[in-house]
Amino acid sequence: MTEVFAENLEDQIDKIIHQYDADSRYSLAVMQDLQETLGYVPREAIDKMAGYFNRSRGELFALTTFYKALTIKPKGRHVVKICAGTTCHIRGGENIGAGITRHLGIEPGDTTEDGEFSFEKVHCVGACALAPVVMVDEDLYGHVTLDKLPEILGKYKDADGGSIDAEVRP
Ligand code: FES
């Protein structure tokens, strides 16, 4: 994800939108570019696109909910995923998900206020033999237990220079 300072956000959005002709069939392409460049599709962009493409904001929001790759909320620096596939579910994945919520203070679909972590529920990630599975960014953790969560999540706080409690330091 490219970091963009707030004061440049409007300029960035304008630049991306105006790379395309004012034809509504380019709406999705603009959103994909916004997602790739900014890491999300800001509400300000939806407003600007509505004017530029002469489409309703509702239609444009519907696109962001239909395409899973698009999100209107900025994602955290680290994305924590709990697998909600059948095998992980049977092996206690839901419990692990609840543990992540307790640890980070957010529900699936949310981002912590400090922008450090986003939390998502995902479909089977293809590592069922390791169920229950948690992913943090591209790292996969198998046979996760509630006891292991502080250590797993603590690694990512620590890696960025954040402070973690001594007892959870790996
Ligand atoms: S069900 Fe979780 S990895 Fe397959």
Keywords:
alpha+beta; 7 helices; single chain; 43% helix; Glutaredoxin; 170 residues; 2 domains; disordered C terminus; binds FE2/S2 (inorganic) cluster; 4-stranded mixed β-sheet
Classified in CATH, the superfamily of the largest domain is: Glutaredoxin
Enter the CATH topology name of the largest domain.
Answer: Glutaredoxin
Number of helices: 7
Q: What's the helical proportion of residues?
A: 40-55%
Please mark out the parts with pLDDT under 50 across 5 or more consecutive residues, or reply none.
Answer: 161-170
Number of domains: 2
Structure summary, number of beta strands: 4
Helix/strand/pairing class, anyone?
alpha+beta
Biggest sheet strand order reads: 2-1-3-4
Major sheet attributes: 4 strands, mixed
Present as ligands are: FE2/S2 (inorganic) cluster
Describe the protein in words.
It is a single chain. The chain is an alpha+beta fold. The protein folds into two domains: 3-66, no CATH class; 78-154, Glutaredoxin (3-Layer(aba) Sandwich). Helices cover 43% and strands 11% of the residues. The chain has seven helices and four strands; from the N terminus they run H-H-H-H-E-H-H-E-E-E-H. It has a four-stranded mixed β-sheet, covered by helices on one side. Helix 1 (6-17) runs parallel beside helix 3. The longest helix has 12 residues, at 6-17. The radius of gyration is 19 Å and the shape is elongated. Residues 161-170 have low confidence and may be disordered. The chain binds FE2/S2 (inorganic) cluster. FE2/S2 (inorganic) cluster binds next to helix 5. FE2/S2 (inorganic) cluster (FES) binds at residues 83, 85-88, 124-128, 131, 133.
